[in-house]
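Saturday, quiet lab. Running sequence design on the structure tokens for the scaffold JK sent over.
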């Protein structure tokens, strides 16, 4: 019975000391690192494929009847899904397109 209590006491004491490999300490460290990166102006994450310049080109091209969507997507290096997420078939901005232009 005494042997069953000892591992619990060890794990409790290591949490109190601040074990660098326990989950809670690692989470606290990661939160602190991300907070300091944001303070320095870093955001992290993958950059968006659609830029403001590409969006303006897509809007102009989508407004024309003779535009071939596949060729436009190849030229802009984006997928159809990305194109239609930002621009309607008539060349009008959609909510994601408005959001992209407001941030740039």
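Result came back. Writing it out in full:
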């Amino acid at each position: 019975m005494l042997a069953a209590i000892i591992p619990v006491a060890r794990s409790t004491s290591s949490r109190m000391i601040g074990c660098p490999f326990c989950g809670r300490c690692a989470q606290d460290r990661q939160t602190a690192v991300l907070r300091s990166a944001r303070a320095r102006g870093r955001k992290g994450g993958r950059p968006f494929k659609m830029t403001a310049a590409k969006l303006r080109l897509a809007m102009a091209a989508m407004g024309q009847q003779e535009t071939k969507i596949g060729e436009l997507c190849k030229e802009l290096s984006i997928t159809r899904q990305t194109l239609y997420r930002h621009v309607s078939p008539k060349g009008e901005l959609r909510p994601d397109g408005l959001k992209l232009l407001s941030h740039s």
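Notes for JK: Residues 23-39 form the longest helix (17 residues). The mean pLDDT is 83. Ask whether to fix the surface positions before the next round.
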